Amino acid sequence: MKNWLTRFLCASLACLVGATAKAGDGKGKIIHKLELDIRSSSIIPTHKSLRTNDTGAPPLLTRLGAAAFHLKYGFQLDPESSLGRLYPYATQGIGISFNTFGARKELGEPWAAYLFQTSRIAALAPWLSLDYEWNFGASFGWNPYDAEENDRNRIIGSKINAYLNVNFFLSARLSRHCSLRAGVDLTHYSNGNTHLPNAGLNTVGGKIGLVYTLNPPDGLPYRYARATEEAYPSDFWHRVSYDVILYAATRAKGVLLADNSVYIFPAHFGILGFNINPMYKFNRFLKAGLSLDGQYDETANIYTNGERRPNGDPTFYRPPLRQQIGVGLSARGEFTMPFFAINLGIGHNLYYNKGSLAGFYQVLALKLSVMRDLFLHIGYQLHKFHEPNNLMLGVGYRFHNL
């Protein structure tokens, strides 16, 4: 189901908009911000077709250069509210962007809709700070690979792709309402193996932007309440919460045949999985723990005996169910902020029958709070540190939540 990512993005946006109504904890006002920024980047090669071309035409990379134009709305919690005191510089919201790569025929000129969150890393002066921002969403309007009509694009196989971005920048206060931002920008586009090819597109470059605060807090723009830590119980187990997550997705599958040709299955396959993840809360920003991970992958260990169908396609067979299930243990770290948490993990399958489920796997996931203990889970799994595996779209519930 290629629209899963789009539906999850829409649900995430709805949850964030709904959260603004209660963001101030019933105290004070919400601070509203508008931002316009421009980003110029270079392409990082992810596939040999970006550097070489077997058709005799110039390599695609010789004329690729990325540019993006972003418009964002964000809100900040009242610095005097309880959450505002814990996270005095956090701003979160929604954004849209127009993107071009200098190859409109092959790649298209996609636009993106995304969630974002930004906050301070360090204050360098009363008017200057070092900040970070992440963006997560979906990009639309790509011109995907087609063997007959668009064979030069061998990196993007779908019209809709995930959009992931992180940028680090200096923020300089120009006036009570305006700030100037400039820094470095890293972006990744891919579809989580829902379609093939899926080499993805990566860019690195710079950004410059202007932020306008519609209703800055009274007094000096950066006179925020001093950040305060929550009072946590001293007992170890009182600081432990338990996240239980169920997720699903679809993925495409390609295999290498005996003659070294690649065959891409015309159908899509199912993914089902779970995570049981105890996490110890060190402070308001950081959690860490272990996760028991189980996943059923309908594509795992599919094989062929060399037979061909009447149309010439190879004949493939599915293995027994036990060869398509993996259960592993992963180490997890989680960065927590208002409304969002970013979860990173590295694990190894402990139970697997053979083949493609062996080895290490890695997880990157975004958790978006729907209610105090209920959250949406949007994740991506890699295999053996470099092979894209599958999306992880689901819901989670947090037990014993502090």
From TrEMBL:
Key word ATP-binding present: no
Coiled coil: none
Signal sequence range: 1-23
Keywords in alphabetical order: Hydrolase, Signal
Transmembrane regions: none
InterPro entries named among the record's database cross-references: Lipid-A_deacylase-rel
One Pfam family named in its UniProt record: PagL
Keyword Acyltransferase belongs to the record: no
GO MF terms held by the record: hydrolase activity
Name of the protein in question: Acyloxyacyl hydrolase
